[in-house]
Amino acid sequence: MGQWKLGYVNGLDSMATYENGMAEYHPFGAKTLTLDTTKMCRAVGVVNNVYSNRFNCTNIVNYPNIANSDPTTAFESDEFNSGFVRILSGAQKDDVYKITDTTNSTLYVSSTTGITSGNRFEAVTGSCTFEFSQNPTRRDFKRIVMNKSIRYPYYGGGLVIPIGWQPDDFMIKSILTDSHDADRLEVMLNHILDYKGLDGLYTVGKLNDNPHGFAPMILETGLNYAQYQHLVNVFDYTITKDAKKSDDYYNVEIHFEGFNTPIYRGL
Q1: Domains contained in the chain, number
Q2: At 136, which CATH number?
Q3: Cβ(126)–Cβ(2) below 8 Å
Q4: CA 7 to CA 5: how far, in whole Å?
Q5: Is 62 a member of any domain?
Q6: What is the spatial distance between Cα 262 and Cα 145, in angstroms, rounded to a whole number?
């Protein structure tokens, strides 16, 4: 049985246009989508010195990080490359900047316009993937059809369309036995990207330059001889610590909406 993974398509955060990002989900001639191998990382800190293409950082708290360790006070080399930084305070609050390079305490960005010393920031990975240490189990939701419908004329018989039809949703359940994994998964489930690998919530909202919406995640499941991939949107989730079993024992439930049909089954 293969290992279950949840992530974004490889290279999403290096797309030059939203159309290119959308095309990555429909690769010509490919039977499967390739998931990114990058781990979900997040760091916060305060802007120090600002230059034309970079800014130095202080008060860094880097967690979750590549090393899967407790919080550190520095970045790892290249850790946030192709990710993005969001300003959390000041006149440019909620503006998003692409990260081009990462050193120990410096973020190189696409532009520093508006960034000033003293701004608080959040840096996160772009396209990334989470690998479940214990493969989840799946539980389907039933379809819901409300008891109303609309009839449209269609030759002699008419066409009836139900109101409130909901496609199949499904839930997966798993167990995590490392607090670092639980924290990393929680950050990732709140990590909504657009088709250029930027923060979808802010490119659609405050920046208002994204006409294509959010990029779906890919749920990849290994089932004996067959491998399935589903395009999914996270509807809600719970991560519950069960201290009666262990200080690092977490029950995970993730509810996906609307994309129940596998996009590929390889034999």
Answers
A1: 1
A2: 2.40.30
A3: no
A4: 7
A5: no
A6: 23
Residue 82 maps to a domain = no
Residue-wise pLDDT tens digits, 178-219: 999 999 999 999 999 999 898 887 776 565 567 788 899 999
| The two structure tokens encoding residue 239 | 């991560």
Q: pLDDT tens digit string along 107-160?
A: 999 999 999 999 999 999 999 999 999 899 887 765 555 566 666 665 556 666
d(CA 47, CA 107): 10
> Tokens 């049909």 correspond to what residue?
261
Specify whether the CB–CB gap between 135 and 3 falls below 8 A. Answer: yes
Burial class (CB in 10 A: 0-12, 13-18, 19+), 256: buried
Whether residue 64 has a cis bond before it, omega within 30° of 0? yes
79 close to 103: Cβ distance less than 8 angstroms: no
User: Is 111 within the bounds of a domain?
Assistant: no
**7 close to 218: Cβ distance less than 8 angstroms:** yes
The whole domain housing 247 covers 1-29+130-192+216-267
pTM of the model: 0.84
